[in-house]
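Exercise: predict the fold of this chain.
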Amino acid sequence: MSGWQPQDCGLDNVNAAAIKHLSTADPVMARIIREIGACTLTPETRRSPFQSLVQAVAHQQLNGTAANTILTRFKKLFPKRKFPQPADLATVTDEQIRACGFSFAKIRAIRDLAEKTLSGVVPSSRAIVKMSDDEIIARLTEVRGVGRWTVEMLLIFQLGREDVLPVDDFGVRNGFRVAYKKREMPKPKALLKFGAKWRPHATTAAWYLWRAADAAKGK
């Protein structure tokens, strides 16, 4: 997939219903599920929206290893915290953040994210769980450098929303191409239309498409 690497753990509360629905609704998805096995996706719910978005910005257009190296250096700028708070960014310079590996465009995005978190545009952990997916997308895409894909990653990997289909994600599109034996990548609009049969469990379908892409890469 592009950038963000899914974490494999265990999601029992919705997995059975999702597997049943997807297997019934889509024969190809049923085959993928048989080949790959149980969905092992668990959201990291303890992260704040600020932390999730900083991490997502770091992963934009980079592979997971490179992004995690940058984040490790970034966190070392704030030795008293496991992860910096928005106000902490005022204590470091752009040059210090740049030395961690962030581009200047990403530094501007992180600065804007910190400001919008402090002003309340970016909701708190408590507030965001009460918002709909569309409300969250509308609010968070006000932040510089944060597009729909970035918010969709937050919806999946922090909030555990069950019906997110990131049709702009390279890994999801490539997984579809591989699994459905297509010569070309599907267009996002076409994938969105096809994915209507997966709802309300599109997140699980996306996870299986990521795994299908990974399996093809391994071969």
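Check your answer against the key: Residues 49-157 form a domain with the Endonuclease III; domain 1 fold (CATH 1.10.340.30).
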